């Protein structure tokens, strides 16, 4: 991803793991039957109950019960953070302080008029906990949305271990939450009887005789299945790497199952979701390149993996169905031993060319061949020419990455999101021996020592206990991405002991793990990298910021939508970036590091005290790529949800120094471009101060690679040169997680070229089906 900044609150894209599903419970203090859960990490309980559905009422009763070290807690019954009711509470001087708020962007949520909050008598603060029990009237409908009290969906919470700025003030500002999550629920199960509800709403207690009963949810085991259909190859995850892998395996005549936890994306995959202006067009939000920016502002963002707290796509196409689709052919250095690749990977051109043959890049995606909204290109190219940069067609010269700029390149096809879904997946689906299973979560592989015998899923129709069997000599390939694949390995008893012990302690996953004597100790999750990135925000009188992309869904410019619907041309045929550039730097440690720049109209945030014209804003994001030395760690939390354990940005101060130098160089000649003004950082803030104060998580580029690095030895790698997991006979990883270092550009081109090469090596490896 690029340039997404959240200053106060990140979106509620949390987790909805199987065991994190709401269920009815009775609060022992007040006897109210609530519907909700206690989160596994912070032990905060969130409960809600509605009046009978027949009333069509807009109120509910809720509670938050938190250990005393919870400094503030938020609850979003509607799930998404934007344009949804948020209830926030904390303790001040032994009293609960609370407010209802709403956020219109991923910024500080603010008060809004409408809801009527009444604290109920069982609200209390004792030495170990605080508890807020409340009635919320006029709370399920508001100007920009509503909660459907009869349907399933996500509910969100936010937690902070850092106190608010002014605890006495219910409208106090506060910093971004320190954790947040989503959990699954069905409000149809959360209605009380009329008598109970009215008594509780009036402050009464007990007697939960309503439609909800205090039971705990149990997973239902379905009727006996003697055996499932076996496959030659099971590929886990329909992201770019998994799709290419499954396509090439089925092309070779193997019987292949591709398992994906999410659902459809583009129209051809069965997707239907999109703004009203696409109705009747056989196009979805995922098909239209120009809707990319709305991925971050849509309140119904079902495409994010809800159990991962950074952006990750959980739908057919994985990241390539929701990303900016910037697409770079890999330079030689992306597969060189200097970056950690085994020497057998160096001759990448054979495989890169196979990828290009299937999916060529374009830097003019509009079907009429014209370029639109090019003012940012013009302004930034003037700036860069003043620094001796040369304009090239970037993908014509993949190895040329110093002092060059060019038009942004994409893998859009015919003015639509193309990528692996519109190419490789299409050919795979046409084959009889290819099957794709959506909405199926893989929770581990079943193994006897070093041999994998099946793939465990949550779908009992695929085999006994949800286990998909393999044909003799069958193989499993994990392509779940840099967060998905490590978790599957941990759940299969493969990884560092600290992570495996977390799985072992989990009541659901623990008993399914192989015995401790069969654990395979590999550095899964170590040595992870992602580009550190910093945004600079500017204005220029010529620039059309396209209303900062705010209206593209609900109030788009009608000439542009008409043009797009008629011929897939115009502004909507491209994502937001307009220009990319690269420059090489020598660090004080004598190592070469490359800086990539991406320029686009609009900005995710700004910070200046001077007035400026919002219609003219644009952003340059500067990322440090090949050569960065900082590394981080990916693992799981106590609820077995993928998490960043150690941030990978600026761990090495030389990375930081080089990026600061690069930012200073970018604006070194800004005065030579008439009318170009930098508004963030503004002229009262130095670049050094700006970078020093930059919120760490905002450096995230969502280009995670490396947790299952390829290498020659199991002391510092997880997969061998054939992508086989060390210590196993028939388990492979093939996705972003095997890349030992960050590629030169936004990574999915390099990841797909790696998939082409990796699957060829797997097919060539003896011992398979
Ligand atoms: C917001 C955003 C913008 C980006 N912009 C760009 C860009 O412009 N250009 C670029 O090159 N890169 C971009 N990226 C990065 C790029 O999309 C990823 O690097 C790439 O998609 C990784 O591919 P992958 O196949 O390794 O994994 P993914 O794309 O993450 O795919 C993994 C798939 O596996 C599935 N899965 C995971 N676990 C399981 C399980 N247990 N059971 C079943 N299925 C599972 C997931 O649902 C997903 O579909 C962006 C990423 C994000 C998040
Ligand atoms: C209910 O809330 C809305 C705003 O969402 C407000 O306009 C309306 O006046 C409120 N109604 C009552 C009865 O308070
Ligand atoms: C404080 O209240 C909580 C929530 O009702 C309860 O679980 C806990 O036992 C109480 N602690 C003490 C010390 O009474
Ligand atoms: C898979 O398909 C190929 C070509 O379509 C065919 O030759 C092969 O026999 C099939 N294999 C299986 C296992 O069905
Ligand atoms: C399995 O998990 C997926 C992804 O979370 C979910 O959509 C699906 O409904 C689950 N299937 C079953 C049978 O529980
Ligand atoms: C905004 O700028 C001011 C002044 O430079 C700085 O103190 C503050 O930390 C900045 N805020 C953010 C969120 O970057
Ligand atoms: C802001 O910029 C737009 C477009 O360049 C221009 O039409 C408008 O007059 C400007 N507004 C102000 C207040 O300067
Ligand atoms: C700083 O920038 C503001 C607005 O862009 C401008 O009005 C002001 O004159 C500038 N100050 C200096 C010292 O350059
Ligand atoms: C991490 O990478 C460094 C080089 O970048 C290497 O020396 C080290 O062995 C790796 N460690 C692990 C655990 O992979």
TrEMBL record:
<dbReference type="InterPro" id="IPR000172">
    <property type="entry name" value="GMC_OxRdtase_N"/>
</dbReference>
<feature type="compositionally biased region" description="Low complexity">
    <location>
        <begin position="211"/>
        <end position="223"/>
    </location>
</feature>
<keyword id="KW-0732">Signal</keyword>
<comment type="similarity">
    <text>Belongs to the GMC oxidoreductase family.</text>
</comment>
<keyword id="KW-0560">Oxidoreductase</keyword>
<dbReference type="InterPro" id="IPR003953">
    <property type="entry name" value="FAD-dep_OxRdtase_2_FAD-bd"/>
</dbReference>
<keyword id="KW-0285">Flavoprotein</keyword>
<dbReference type="InterPro" id="IPR007867">
    <property type="entry name" value="GMC_OxRtase_C"/>
</dbReference>
<keyword id="KW-0274">FAD</keyword>
<dbReference type="InterPro" id="IPR036188">
    <property type="entry name" value="FAD/NAD-bd_sf"/>
</dbReference>
<dbReference type="InterPro" id="IPR015920">
    <property type="entry name" value="Cellobiose_DH-like_cyt"/>
</dbReference>
<dbReference type="Pfam" id="PF00732">
    <property type="entry name" value="GMC_oxred_N"/>
</dbReference>
<feature type="region of interest" description="Disordered">
    <location>
        <begin position="204"/>
        <end position="223"/>
    </location>
</feature>
<dbReference type="Pfam" id="PF05199">
    <property type="entry name" value="GMC_oxred_C"/>
</dbReference>
<dbReference type="InterPro" id="IPR053208">
    <property type="entry name" value="GMC_Oxidoreductase_CD"/>
</dbReference>
<dbReference type="Pfam" id="PF16010">
    <property type="entry name" value="CDH-cyt"/>
</dbReference>
<feature type="domain" description="Glucose-methanol-choline oxidoreductase N-terminal">
    <location>
        <begin position="313"/>
        <end position="336"/>
    </location>
</feature>
<dbReference type="GO" id="GO:0050660">
    <property type="term" value="F:flavin adenine dinucleotide binding"/>
</dbReference>
<dbReference type="GO" id="GO:0016614">
    <property type="term" value="F:oxidoreductase activity, acting on CH-OH group of donors"/>
</dbReference>
<protein>
    <submittedName>
        <fullName>Substrate-specific activator of APC-dependent proteolysis</fullName>
    </submittedName>
</protein>
<feature type="signal peptide">
    <location>
        <begin position="1"/>
        <end position="18"/>
    </location>
</feature>
<feature type="domain" description="Glucose-methanol-choline oxidoreductase N-terminal">
    <location>
        <begin position="481"/>
        <end position="495"/>
    </location>
</feature>
<dbReference type="Pfam" id="PF00890">
    <property type="entry name" value="FAD_binding_2"/>
</dbReference>
